From TrEMBL:
Keyword DNA-binding: yes
Entry annotated with the keyword Iron: no
Matches recorded under NCBIfam families: rrf2_super (TIGR00738)
Gene3D superfamilies given in the database record: Winged helix-like DNA-binding domain superfamily/Winged helix DNA-binding domain
Keywords: DNA-binding
Protein name: BadM/Rrf2 family transcriptional regulator
PANTHER family reported for this sequence: HTH-TYPE TRANSCRIPTIONAL REPRESSOR NSRR (PTHR33221:SF4), WINGED HELIX-TURN-HELIX TRANSCRIPTIONAL REGULATOR, RRF2 FAMILY (PTHR33221)
GO molecular function term, any single one: DNA binding
GO cellular component: cytosol
Known cofactor(s): [2Fe-2S] cluster
Pfam families: Rrf2
Length: 147
């Protein structure tokens, strides 16, 4: 299973923000994860739309993870961001093997197994030791305001 780049970045954003419950600006997130600011803004917007992050404006504003998201499964995040499409598209254009091929079913079973494994992992588990300290080192703390 291949995750699109924005889903990969989104998972890293959620992990980074969930590590200490703080808030970071889009600029700080982009710098920490070495992603162009414009792309980061789009990723944050998608995460916000699905409720995985909350944003606020102003001097102490930024992007943060609501506490309930810590108990969210990684599978739920991936499904929300990737959609429920199949690994292969046998219908457009129609595949001549469609009627007797077993590949589509095998790939669908593999995709469901992939997501089932991710359903057993929570965001909280992703930021547990040893990942937490490494994530915290990505963004040096700044006194006052949003980091």
């Amino acid at each position: 299973m291949y995750l699109i780049r924005s889903t990969d970045i989104a998972l890293r954003v959620v992990m980074l923000l969930a590590t200490d419950g703080g808030r970071l600006t889009v600029d700080r997130l982009a710098d920490a994860l070495d992603v162009p600011r414009h792309h980061m803004a789009k990723v944050v917007q998608r995460l916000q739309r699905h409720g995985f992050v909350a944003t606020s404006r102003g001097r102490a504003g930024g992007v943060g993870v609501p506490p309930a998201v810590l108990e969210t499964s990684v599978g739920a995040v991936v499904r929300a961001l990737e959609g429920d499409s199949e690994v292969v598209d046998c219908d457009g254009p129609p595949c001549p093997l469609r009627g007797g091929c077993h590949l589509r079913g095998a790939l669908r079973a593999a995709q469901l197994a992939f997501l089932a494994v991710l359903d057993d992992v929570t965001v909280r588990a992703l930021v547990a030791e040893p990942a937490g300290p490494v994530l915290l080192d990505l963004v040096p703390h700044r006194a006052g305001g949003a980091r």
